[in-house]
Amino acid sequence: MNIKWKLAFLITIAAPLISLVWTVKEPILENFGTMDQLVPADIAWILTASCLVLLMTPGLSLFYGGMVGKKNLISTMLQSFISLGVVTMLWVVVGFSLSFGDPIGITINGTKYGLIGNPLQYPFFDQVSILPHKALGSTIPFVLFALFQMKFAVITPAIITGSLAERVRFIGYLFFIGVFTVFVYAPLCHMVWHPNGLIGAYFGVVDFAGGTVVHISAGLASLAGALFIGKRKNPNHDPSNITYVLLGTGMLWFGWFGFNAGSSFAANGTAAMAFATTTISSATAMMTWVLFDRIQGRKISAMQACIGAVVGLVVITPAAGFITIPQSLTFGFIGAIVSNIIMNAKFLKKIDDTLDVFACHGIGGIMGMILTAIFANKEGSSLMHGGWSIFGSHMLVLLGVAVFSFGMSYLIFFVLNKFVTLRVREEYEEIGLDISQHGESMKSV
What share of the chain is helix, strand, coil (3-state, %, to 5)? Predict the structure, then answer.
């Protein structure tokens, strides 16, 4: 066992060892409501939504696993699955504090706007109890709010695996997950979703369920990773199992109802509307994608239908609870057309983004944010309901988030590679990551 694996092991066991002597702090009552303010229906729905969002990560592993070559199926699936372990532990120790702790940032006109949360606010889930937080999920236990948000943090780095598939070392990927969560995901989460976050509170940008926080950040990180690690030696392969892709898509679509409708944080009409717009956008994008493929001279394939459906889910995410049913048709249609064109563009083919994560999640998230900035019917939050100023704020933030996500992710890859070689050896890539990294193979596929 080399030093890097020993370091990973020491980091992993540090949290359980510290927890043995950690004294959990009781909630500061002025920040919390009472048990009487808990709403059973809201609790039941967010518990259910949390389960649905958790299901998305195994769904993503099937979705990605079926697309790669047979000799890399297990490694690709495990890269998604392992995020459940790494990010869950990190979220409890410090991730939740960085995302939703008291703002650390800048003061503008006497008001403090956060760039990141105070890491000492909720370490080891201090104060995270069954009482409702007045500003964060006021009708559900704070611990439920924290766990629901944790599922979003889990799936975001898992999305990035698709761009690095078939050539990334597992140990390097493990370190990347942790560093990305702390330095990219947590700041964006805080700035967008904390009540005093810079992007949401100062710029007025809306992101209902993660178009900016999850998909743009993951999509731009994927582009950075593909550029840094470089092309595979043999990028041409047949997908290992299309039925896995279909099953994974079904699990993602099913789980996305918790992802979007759960972001209402209540069993209410907004949740119902988000539920409806989510499935309608996905259905529209799927049909648009396959028919657009056909008129371009490409055959209608099961895998492309699945990709189209996922793009529809991505593009609707930032606006799911803020738009009408007819507008969700527009989101799905435009998102599918633009992502399809980008995915098949010659310039992007020169970049070996293995499973087209940037074209689907990055471009899908960007289009979702642009369309949200035009149509969102939350008062004063879009071009149609707030004028050009708020639209300009969205576009400025979009540019800033894209630059931050790409630049910080590329820096993380660059620095990590100095300590942990991120790319597997050429001979290991040739025999496949299943055997070379994990000593397993999918012989029955």
Answer: 70, 5, 25
Q: Is residue 15 part of a domain?
A: no
Q: Is residue 359 part of a domain?
A: yes
Is there a domain that residue 444 lies in? no
What is the DSSP secondary structure assignment for residue 2, as one 8-state letter?
-
Please tell me the distance from the alpha carbon of residue 128 to that of residue 144, in angstroms, as a whole number: 9
How many percent of the chain have pLDDT more than 70?
A: 99
Helix/strand/coil for 414? helix
Task: From 183, 144, 152, select the one nearest 45 (Cα to Cα).
Answer: 144
CATH number of the domain where residue 127 is located:
1.10.3430.10
Neighbours of 197 (CB within 10 A): 26
Characterize 13-50 residue by residue with b for buried, 16 or more Cβ atoms within 10 angstroms of its Cβ, and e for exposed.
eeeeeeeeeeeeeeeeeeebbeeeebbeebbebbbebb
Closest CA to 239 of 76, 437, 14, 359: 76
Q: Do residues 413 and 225 make contact, with C-beta atoms less than 8 angstroms apart?
A: yes
State mean pLDDT over 88-103: 97
389-402 pLDDT, tens digit per residue, is: 889 999 999 999 99
Q: For residue 444, name the pLDDT band (cuts at 50, 70, 90).
A: very low
Which helix (H) or strand (E) segment holds residue 106: the answer is strand 103-108
Q: What per-residue confidence (pLDDT) applies to 445?
A: 45
**Any domain includes 149:** yes
pLDDT, one tens digit per residue, over 308-342 is 999 999 999 999 999 999 999 999 999 999 999 99
Q: Are 442 and 240 in contact (CB under 8 A)?
A: yes
**Which long-range contacts link 274-278 to residues 24+ away (Cβ below 8 Å)?**
274/208, 274/209, 274/320, 274/321, 276/325, 276/328, 277/316, 277/319, 277/320, 277/321, 277/323, 277/324, 277/325, 277/327, 277/328, 277/331, 278/313, 278/316, 278/320, 278/328
| Average pLDDT in the chain | 94
At residue 3, does pLDDT exceed 60? Answer: yes
Tokens of 239: 């997908």
**276: exposed, middle or buried (Cβ count in 10 Å: 0-12, 13-18, 19+):** middle
Burial string for 226-241 (b: 16+ CB within 10 Å, else e) reads bbbbeebeeeeeebbb
Average pLDDT over residues 2-27: 86
DSSP 367: H
Residue ranges making up the domain that contains 343: 39-438
Residue 105: its H or E element: strand 103-108
Total tally of structural domains belonging to the chain: 1
**pTM score, two decimals?**
0.95
